[in-house]
Design goal:
The complex is a heterodimer of chains A (96) and B (197). By secondary structure, chain A is mainly alpha-helical. Chain A is built from three helices and one strand; from the N terminus they run αβαα. Chain B has a single domain, classed as Aminopeptidase. Chain B starts with 9 loop residues before the first strand and ends with a helix. The chains are: A mainly alpha (96), B alpha+beta (197). At the A-B interface, α1, β1, α2 and α3 of A face α1, α2, β4, α4 and α5 of B.
């Protein structure tokens, strides 16, 4: 029925919908995961200290962001210096 | 003969308060269902779709910080989070060497009550279908012609196939090409139009 065209009857569309609604309960998909990883996921979600696990993840994420920020600031400084140097060189060339 | 009623869902882009609250409710309901239907032991739910949903819910939590902008969700008429997924733009390589762009459904799960075999008062059928419909529209808006890609396990393939996805040679990857995407949107439009008449 995915080959829909205007001649499809109400009955056909209803059949399609009935089937699609029935298939909804299987709607779990995604990139492959080992059984171990799935078990770990399930165990963590059901852990009474799940919020502690999430808090630790948030702290790790923050550290990563801070590191990236530090690197970005260094990069900005480096490029600013380069641009200034280029401008100075041009000025010197023009003067000579 | 009349058309079957179509349930309506609201499409949410990104992570907002209602998504966080929705995931918390899923977590609470998961515990409730394990006690009710699996004798309080998640081991009894192993190899079920529900077990996959529990794992996928944890997976969604891990993307809250790193990729909030990649969240897409469907909210039902009760204001409940009914289905959620993580997406990303992707290249699709065809057998003829052509490369197309599309949206990849990286992780998707229906709500815990929608993955149980036992009907629940919260259940509003059609949430995952509605979410895929909105993803097709987003793919079109991005200039990807409605093309979607999903990696699937055998249990979910029929769900995607009925929408119009085609499997890539037993790899588990399934693609919805632009013509099939258009047909799917037409079906949804037709169902909705007749629902309102």
């Amino acid at each position: 029925m995915s080959n829909y065209n205007k001649t499809e009857s109400i009955e056909d569309i209803n059949k399609w919908q009935e089937k699609q609604y029935e298939l909804e309960k299987y709607a779990v998909s995604g990139r492959g995961m080992t059984q171990e990883r799935m078990d770990k996921n399930v165990k963590e979600l059901l852990d009474p200290n799940f919020n502690h696990i999430l808090l630790e993840e948030a702290k790790v994420h923050k550290q990563k962001l801070l590191k990236n920020l530090e690197w970005t600031e260094k990069r900005i400084q480096y490029l600013t210096n380069q641009i200034e140097e280029e401008a100075n060189n041009k000025t010197s060339e023009n003067l000579s | 003969m009349h058309f079957m009623t179509i349930n309506e869902f609201r499409y949410v882009i990104g992570v907002q308060e209602e998504i966080l609250l929705g995931l918390q409710l899923w977590q609470a309901k998961i515990t409730e269902y394990i006690n009710l239907y699996y004798q309080g032991d998640i081991e009894n739910a192993k190899n079920t779709i529900f077990y996959g949903c529990v794992s996928k819910t944890r997976e969604l939590y891990s993307y809250l910080l790193s990729r909030p902008e990649d969240y897409r969700s469907a909210i039902d008429d009760q204001g409940l989070l009914a289905c959620a997924c993580i997406i990303q733009p992707t290249d699709i390589y065809l057998d003829n060497g052509e490369v197309l762009q599309g949206l990849e459904i990286e992780h998707l799960t229906n709500s815990p009550w929608n993955t149980l075999l036992y009907p629940q008062p919260e259940t509003r059928k059609g949430s995952a279908t509605s979410l895929v419909e909105e993803l097709v529209k987003e793919s079109q808006a991005l200039g990807f012609n409605g093309i979607l890609k999903a990696v699937t396990v055998p249990s979910v393939r029929e769900f995607y196939k009925n929408i119009g996805f085609v499997e890539d040679n037993g790899t588990g990857w399934m693609t919805l090409i632009s013509d099939a995407a258009e047909r799917f949107l037409n079906i949804q439009q037709e169902r909705r139009r007749n629902n309102h008449e």
